Amino acid sequence: MRRVTFDLDVLRSFVTGMELGSFAKAADRLGRSTSAVSAQLKKLEEQAATPIFRKSGRGLALTEAGETMLGYARRMIELNDEAASAIHDVELEGWVRLGLQEDFGEAVLPDVLGRFARAHPKVKIEARIARSHDLAERVMSGSLDIALAWHCGETLPYSEHVADVPMRWIGPAKRIETNLRDGEPLPLVALEAPCLLRTVATETLDRAGLSWRMAFSSPSLGGIWAAVAAGLGLTIRTDIGLPASVSAMTPEIAGLPALPKMALFLHRKDADAEPVAARLADILLDAARQALPENARASDGDLRNVA
């Protein structure tokens, strides 16, 4: 079997395009022409000696080999960037204050902390897991340097829109009949008010003409998962960070109304972040995009002109 050395620039274009959902956007971000990126993708398929993309409706999707390639490409780029940071920023010191919305605590934080600590062992990180409104307030007050949070209606001066993530109805992994009995108000499980998702759930049901009752509320996401798993009611979240005890439901099958998408933002304290905060923000964005469900990143139409 011939040895293949993949081009990291090609892999970076590939990964960036998949994460942005558009290779035209990837070309713009990477400072390349769309034709140059198209040529890189053709080169990638030639090096792989197998199709990376397949037709899907009017657009393109990844083949099984393409999905495998994407996973390895991310790891290769991650290791390359860690090596570059470790060499060039070896004296990077100080501390940085990071905030994460609860959904991302287990799904993103371990990866972010591990990658950052390996490249910058002298930097101290202070992390806070909290609700989006609290995180936004702390960034505004200057007590957090960066925060990854759902949009909670507040406009911050230095924020980056990461993605629009579909909300899902969430029920117990083991279906419990009492959740959706005909003629009875739908039992809801939600965080204590004020809570954006609580409001979305009740307003969506009201518009659909469906009765509901608040069966359980909790100040923590852990309490929400426990109540849903026990069959006390349904809640709404995204696909990110769901424990094995609960699962997303298909609205059409369950007779539930469709839900909107929720905007995810990276908030920064300052327009020009300190090197420590800027580096951590880069790693956080990369890890967050990898944790997003596919339908939050791309649509088939976005991928029509990749090759």
Any overview of this molecule?
The longest helix is centred in the first third of the chain and has 25 residues. The C terminus is likely disordered. 33% of the residues are buried. The chain is 42% helix and 22% strand. It has 307 residues and is an alpha/beta fold. Strands 4-3-5-12-6 form a 5-stranded mixed β-sheet, with helices on both faces. The two termini are 27 Å apart. Strand 8, helix 8 and strand 9 form a beta-alpha-beta unit. It has 11 helices and 12 strands.
Write the layout of secondary structure elements.
Blueprint: H1 8-20, H2 23-30, H3 34-48, E1 53-56, E2 59-62, H4 64-88, E3 94-101, H5 104-107, H6 109-119, E4 123-130, H7 132-141, E5 146-150, E6 159-166, E7 168-172, E8 186-191, H8 196-207, E9 212-218, H9 221-229, E10 235-237, E11 246-248, H10 251-254, E12 261-268, H11 275-291
Parallel strand pairs: 3-4, 3-5, 8-9
Antiparallel strand pairs: 1-2, 5-12, 6-12, 7-10, 7-11
